[in-house]
C-alpha cells in the first residue's frame, strides 16, 4: 500500500477543461493532513526513458497502466520517450535532492497560483505529505503550486505554464479582471523585492518592518499562504538585528506555526529545536543587535491584530 490516510476526504475525478483533479468530498480544516503517499518509482536527476522503463517493470500491471494514464505532452502511441515525458511532467522533487518520484494520487492535484494545499517531502517516512493550508469546503478543488508563484507576475507564470502544458493557467488569480490582476502582480513584485528592502533597511528597522507588514497584507489578499512563512522569518531577523527580544520571539513563533501548518508538527526536528531556542532566547542569534536598535513591538502586534480577524 503506497498511500495512507484520508482518501475518503477527497475524490479524484474528471474536471471540465482539465485532465483530472482532486475535489474535497467533505469540509477540510486548515492544517489537516490530506494525503501521505510513497512514490511508485524514484529516479535520479539524470534519468532516461530506459531507466524509467526498467523501474516500471517492478510495479504491478495496474500501476503500470496508472502510470501511463498520467498527463503527457506526447501521445501514448508515440513510444519514443513517452516514459520520460510522463515522468518529467508529473514527478515531484524529493526534498532538496535532485531525485524525483512519481506519486499516482499526488500527481492528480492541479496547479493554482493561490494553492490551498502544500506538499512536503517527509524523508523519515519516505512519503510526500499534502497539508490543507486553508479551510476547504466540500466540493472545492484541492490545488498545489507546481512552481514558485509567490514573487512571480502573472505574465511570467503564464509563460512557464504554457511551456509545460501548452495552455494558460486558469486558476482563480490568473482569471481575475485585468485591473485586479495588475494589483496582484504588483503585490508579487513587491514580495520579490523584499530581500533587498530588508538588507538595505537594517539601519532603519521600523521602515523594514512597515515594508514587511505591507507584503504580508498583500500575500493575505492574494491568498498565498506559502509565501508568508519566509516573510515571518525575515521579520524575526529584523527584530534580532534591532535587539528587540519581545518582537523577535513573536515572529519566531509565527514562523514556527506557519512551518508546522505547511509541513506538520515533526517536519524537521533540527530546525524546530533551533527555532525553539530562539523563541526562548533571541539573544543567542548570531545577528543579535547588529543593526540600529529599535522597539518594533507596536508594529509587530498590529499584524497579530489584523491576522486574527
Ligand atoms: Zn494561475
TrEMBL record:
Name recorded for this polypeptide: SET domain-containing protein
CDD domains in alphabetical order: SET_SMYD (cd20071)
Cited InterPro entries: SET_dom, SET_dom_sf, SET_domain_protein
SET domain location: 6-147
Native source species: Calocera viscosa (strain TUFC12733)
Pfam families (UniProt xref): SET
Transmembrane stretches, start-end: none
